[in-house]
Specification:
The protein contains 30 helices and 16 strands. The protein has 763 residues and is of the alpha/beta class. It folds into four domains: 156 residues, Recoverin, domain 1, CATH 1.10.238; 213 residues, no CATH class; 96 residues, Elongation Factor Tu (Ef-tu), domain 3; 145 residues, Nucleotide-binding domain of ferredoxin-NADP reductase (FNR) module (Rossmann fold). Strand 3 and strand 4 form a beta hairpin. It is found in: Membrane.
Length: 763
């Protein structure tokens, strides 16, 4: 392959683009260069570092030295265009030469050699002019270690020096084919060719930085009512249609009954009848005990129980909208009445007083209506996300409790509202009374606190004797020492098979959770009481006796703090055990519902296994545990390395539990992704990812997490992930997700494309 750096080759490389694209790219590069370079027309090293957005200056300095072909200490527009043209549109060999010289640290440009050093003849970048550049022409172990250390910093990975040495030796020994103690250009090329896709995808951040931005595609609107869309949303669409149809019917019946009183009265009465239904039924959607019971019945397959909060919010918007229309219609009617010659009342009397006698309780319809509208607007404003998520949750909580006053005013305001409220109100107050009695019947205690990385608080709570829950369920927690009246929902992260304790993993994100973390960080419950060591021994014994649930704890704080729990309550993840092929996706702390589920799945799976005592042959036999699962894929996406420390010991145990099942194919497959880590297609991470692969194959464990499963850099390619899942043909696929709403939308779109059912837990 011709690798000379003459202009002809440069034109040939850029010739893959059309003339229009080429001209557009050059114009954009020139404009970007002028913006960065300023008046002097050249880019200095500091300007280059700032523009490249790299975490580690090592790579910026190496790139700059190789771009600066005349060693003037600055980069001109011509030098930049020639270098980037080869890096973006050049052959894999051109890019490989650049990579080699980045790794060959003792080149003269890096060491600051004398100005008499030759850079190679001809136009174009000097790495393209000479196969080995002007350095030593080889990479020794110390140079490779320096590069890998910078790669680790770029990817925000922290490893001990011993592990860095192991990575360096793993890559060096694999690449040094002739064993002469140095890696040549040819050896590096051969090593890269062993990793599929690396040569084709080789690029650097500088190329992306000065590549003309592609026109932003218009967002594709999902094709509504396609077969896949209907498959995933049929219950929601049916309920929405029924809800809209009921409102049309109620409005029409009420309006027609008052058609002799004029249009404004017809509109007011129609809206009022719809409000009778909405204001009584809206609370039914938040009856958690009733919803949990319904999840265990066939109605869970018909009703969209997982979207109860979204429907509650929708009804809240409808209530506010109908109330405004209802008020405006009555106001118009009052204006018309006040203008009539025979009317004894003025407008303000009709609107604000009881003198006209409007209403069934001492003429209180008008003033109660005004009070109701003000209360509803207050609740509406204080329930907005900007209030709830800005550290003012208590504002939302206390203003939402005014629903009791709203119901009372509605009973005085409308003559028929009490009839609509009778059944929902009885159910509502029964549930509240039962919840209050159960939660306050006997306080439980927090037996141990474990402070984990990324400000995660791990609580071990003594399990009440009659507290029965299912994997993925959640509870409400109240700790009077943190906040006497605040209850907050948290997913139970321990398996139901764990009899002694309940686990909660709480991430510090708001005022209450931050106070919880800081209170245990500041105090030392470990030193309280004379029976500290006895209690510690007892706790450890109880943990060892719990099947499938031991975790290596750090920063222990044994304590005896009173708390109250309310629950358990069901979630969409209850459907997992009725699935055939379940794909569990957790982002960050979104793993907590799956921690309980994974433990329970493996516990049930182990119960299915039988071993012959004579020949040690093992087989799997079905048992009556209502679990239809044939395969489970667990995907965990984290931003940084420390985030994996939350549940690494649990995942390690899960891997050990099924280590002997390789002959049958793994029932549970783990897939780990670290978004801050750069992938093999980035110049700043190629060597590191190759070394991590080599060392993982050698040690049979990942260097980042210690698991057997290799941690993949970057974000998952969801198309490839779901294609692989579909190709396995393990049965009907259902995807369960807990994480950010933005990622949920992406996953939902892919599930519709592949025909998978998608379930999301509110996060």
């Amino acid at each position: 392959m011709n690798t000379s750096g003459d202009p002809a080759q440069t034109e040939g490389c850029r010739g893959t683009m059309s003339a229009e694209e080429d001209a557009r790219w050059l114009r954009w590069v020139t404009q970007q260069f002028k913006t960065i370079a300023g008046e002097d027309g050249e880019i200095s090293l500091q300007e280059f570092k700032a523009a490249l957005h790299v975490k580690e200056s090592f790579f910026a300095e190496r790139f700059f030295a190789l771009f600066d072909s005349d060693r003037s200490g600055t980069i001109t527009l011509q030098e930049l265009q020639e270098a980037l043209t080869l890096l973006i549109h050049g052959s894999p060999m051109d890019k490989l030469k650049f990579l080699f010289q980045v790794y060959d640290i003792d080149v003269c440009a890096w060491q600051g050699a004398s100005a008499g050093t030759e850079w190679g003849a001809g136009a174009g970048p000097h790495w393209a002019s000479s196969p080995l550049g002007t350095g030593s022409g080889s990479i020794d172990p110390d140079e490779l270690r320096t590069v890998l250390q910078s790669c680790l910093r770029e990817s925000a990975i922290s490893l001990p020096d011993e592990k860095l040495d192991q990575l360096t030796l793993a890559l060096f020994e694999s690449a040094d084919a002739d064993g002469n103690g140095a890696i040549t250009f040819e050896e590096l090329r051969d090593e890269l060719q062993r990793f599929p896709g690396v040569m084709e995808n080789l690029t650097i951040s500088a190329a992306h930085w000065l590549t003309a931005p592609a026109p932003r595609p218009r967002p594709r609107r999902p094709r509504q009512l396609t077969r896949a869309y209907w498959h995933n949303h049929r219950s929601q669409l049916f309920c929405l249609a029924a809800y809209a149809g009921l409102h049309v019917l109620l409005f029409a019946l009420a309006a027609s009954a008052h058609r002799d009183l004029g249009a404004s009265v017809m509109v007011a009465k129609g809206c009022g009848q719809c409000l009778n239904f909405d204001c009584s039924f809206i609370a039914m959607l938040m009856l958690r005990r009733c919803l949990t019971w319904l999840r265990a019945t066939w109605l869970a397959q018909v009703l969209p129980l997982d979207q109860n909060i979204q429907f509650h919010q929708l009804m809240g918007y409808v209530v506010v909208g109908l109330s405004l229309v209802h008020t405006v219609a009555h106001t118009v009617n009052f204006v018309l009445q006040a203008q009539a010659e025979a009317s004894p009342f003025q407008f303000w009397e009709l609107l604000l007083t009881t003198r006209p006698g409007i209403g069934w309780v001492h003429g209180s319809a008008s003033p109660t209506g005004v009070a109701l509208l003000l209360l509803l607007l207050l609740m509406f404003i204080c329930s907005s996300s900007c209030v709830r998520r800005s550290g003012h949750f208590e504002v939302f909580y206390w203003t939402h409790l005014s629903y009791l006053l709203v119901w009372l005013l509605l009973i005085f305001h409308g003559p028929n509202f009490w009839k609509w409220l009778l059944v929902p109100g009885i159910l509502f107050f029964l549930e509240k009374a039962i919840g209050l009695a159960v939660s306050r019947m006997a306080a439980v205690c927090i037996m141990e606190v474990n402070l984990l990385p990324s400000k995660v608080t791990h609580l071990l709570i003594k399990r009440p004797p009659f507290f029965h829950y299912r994997p993925g369920d959640y509870l409400y927690l109240n700790i009077p020492t943190i906040a006497r009246y605040e209850w907050h929902p948290f997913t139970i992260s321990s398996a139901p098979e764990q009899k002694d304790t309940i686990w909660l993993h709480i991430r510090s994100q708001g005022q209450w959770t931050n106070r919880l973390y800081e209170s245990f960080k500041a105090t030392d419950p470990l030193g309280r009481g004379s029976k500290r060591l006895s209690r510690s021994v007892t706790m450890r014994k109880s943990q060892r006796s719990s099947k499938g649930s031991e975790i290596l704890l750090e920063k222990h704080k044994f304590c005896n703090i009173k708390c109250y729990i309310d629950g358990p309550y069901g979630t969409p993840t209850r459907r997992i055990f009725a699935s055939e092929h379940a794909v569990l996706i957790g982002a960050g702390i979104g793993i907590t519902p799956f921690a309980s589920i994974l433990q329970s799945i493996m516990y049930r799976h182990q119960k299915r296994k039988h071993t012959c005592p004579s020949c040690q042959h093992s087989w799997i036999e079905g048992v009556q545990d209502n679990m239809k699962l044939h395969k489970v894929d667990f995907i965990w996406i984290n931003r940084d390395q420390r985030s994996f420390e939350w549940f690494v010991s649990l995942l390690t145990k899960l891997e050990m539990d099924q280590a002997e099942e390789a002959q049958y194919g793994h029932f549970l497959e783990l897939h780990m992704y670290m978004t801050s880590a750069l992938g093999k297609n980035d110049m700043k991470a190629i060597g590191l990812q190759m070394a991590l692969d080599l060392l993982a194959n050698k040690e049979k464990k990942d260097s980042i997490t210690g698991l057997q499963t290799r941690t993949q850099p970057g974000r998952p390619d969801w198309s490839k992930v779901f294609q692989k899942v579909a190709a396995e043909k393990k049965g009907k696929v259902q995807v369960f997700f807990c994480g950010s709403p933005a990622l949920a939308k992406v996953l939902k779109g892919h599930c519709e494309k592949f025909g998978f059912r998608f379930f999301q837990e509110n996060f």
